[in-house]
Design brief:
This protein is 31% helix and 24% strand. Strand 9 (175-188), helix 5 and strand 10 form a beta-alpha-beta unit. The chain has helices at residues 19-37, 68-79, 104-110, 135-152, 202-217, 251-254, 275-292, 327-337, 342-349, 378-385; strands at 6-14, 42-50, 53-61, 82-83, 88-89, 94-100, 119-126, 159-172, 175-188, 226-229, 245-246, 298-305, 314-318. The chain is flat. It has ten helices and 13 strands.
Length: 386
């Protein structure tokens, strides 16, 4: 919990064109394509991207076949890397497939409904936004969603696919009161460089701020809010041309923006028998419903598993002193109402459906299109408390 007094908390987000997010989207697109044809497939798909090269690896056991190379190319081109303009081209890059199969030693435990790995997963919710997510992360995501929109509709045709945002919120006694600082770095063409060739023009900075930033932060901004756009001066060379990407390297962007601990694993490219993913979704679902039921202002849930075992070996609820009941009692109620076995989680959320590509950018949580974001258990939780 944000503590008493005055403090500043920051979260960041990255765009679809960030190299790590390109990899997440390729891995999840491959997973989705496999699940369309084989709902029982075991998938742990990892992607690496660098200049002119994509490598897809990991372990996949399935009865079907998908065109990994074409899926990767389609994702890259759809993001916007479809010409030499931004340094990477999905039409001409090399794609190397080095996928293997899942170890039979793991499979024998998963086949009977056990967890696909050991590990701990964390879910979180806080009542400072309608999404029950940290404000700094919600604003960071929304700024980049705006950038994505104006890039695609050519409102600002000089924008490139790679971008990052960062929002710092000032808190007073645990309450968010204002946006203190916004940092946005966005890839662009040379068309907006000034005469020095070392930085973008003030006009372009204003255009980016007016189109992407101010509509998001205006409710929270004041005369002292600071906005930095491309603070190094320019960002012409970006994407995989300037930085390697890996699946699963943006776990804080994917989750809660640093407001709570993170479990042991990343999400993208993993089928739902991997509790790294499915149990993290359940942990969020539990935490969100507890906060939605007004049983706490803030809630962190941890679930832990042993590989091959069905029931969790650990379950933990922490409301940081904001709960209407002792945390131990809330944990007992949650265990009663929510399915916690891998099989139960998969069935509850229908996780063998091809829903994963849409999770791979702008966060896995706080988005109403996902089943783990429902608050349909809030009434039952309230009933248990009475």
């Amino acid at each position: 919990m944000i503590k008493q007094g005055k403090c500043f908390f920051t979260s960041e987000s990255v765009s679809k064109g960030h190299p790590d997010k390109v990899c997440d989207q390729i891995s999840d697109a491959i997973l989705d394509e496999i699940l369309k044809k084989d709902k029982t497939a075991r998938v742990a798909c990892e992607t690496y991207i660098t200049r002119g090269l994509v490598i897809v690896g990991g372990e996949i056991t399935t009865r079907t076949w998908v065109d990994v190379e074409q899926i990767a190319r389609d994702v890259i081109k759809n993001i916007g890397y479809d010409s030499p303009l931004f340094g990477f081209n999905g039409n001409t890059c090399a794609v190397v497939n080095v996928i293997g199969k899942q170890s039979p030693d793991i499979s024998q435990g998963v086949d009977v409904g056990g967890a696909g790995d050991q590990g701990l997963m964390v879910g979180y919710a806080v009542d400072e936004t309608p999404e029950l997510m940290p404000l700094s992360l919600v604003l960071s995501h929304d700024i980049l969603k705006n950038l994505e929109k104006i890039r695609r509709n050519k409102t600002l045709p000089y924008l490139g696919p790679d971008a990052k945002s960062q929002v710092t919120i000032e808190y007073q006694n645990g309450i968010p009161v204002r946006v203190d600082t916004v940092v946005v770095s966005t890839q662009h063409t040379e068309a907006i460089l000034d005469k020095s060739g070392k930085k973008i023009t003030e006009k372009s900075k204003k255009q980016i701020a007016d189109a992407a930033i101010w509509p998001v932060i205006k409710k929270w901004a004041d005369k002292n809010t600071k906005i930095y756009i491309n603070p190094t001066g320019k960002f012409v060379i970006g994407g995989p041309q300037s930085d390697t990407g890996l699946t699963g390297r943006k776990i804080i962007v994917d989750t809660y923006g640093g407001r709570c601990p993170h479990g042991g694993g990343a999400f993208s490219g993993k089928d739902p028998t991997k509790v790294d993913r499915s149990a993290a979704y359940m942990a969020r679902y539990i935490a969100k419903n507890i906060v939605a039921a007004k049983l706490a202002k803030e809630c962190t849930v941890q679930i832990a598993y042993a590989i091959g075992r069905e029931e969790p070996v650990g379950f933990y609820v922490d409301t940081d002193g904001t709960g209407v009941l002792p945390d131990e009692k809330l944990a007992q109620i949650a265990r009663k109402l929510f399915p916690l076995t891998p099989r139960g989680i998969i069935e509850h959320f229908k996780l063998r459906s091809p829903i994963y590509a849409q999770t791979a950018a702008f966060g896995h949580f706080g988005r109403k299109e996902f089943p783990w974001e429902k608050t349909d258990k809030a009434a039952l939780l309230k009933k248990e408390v009475k």
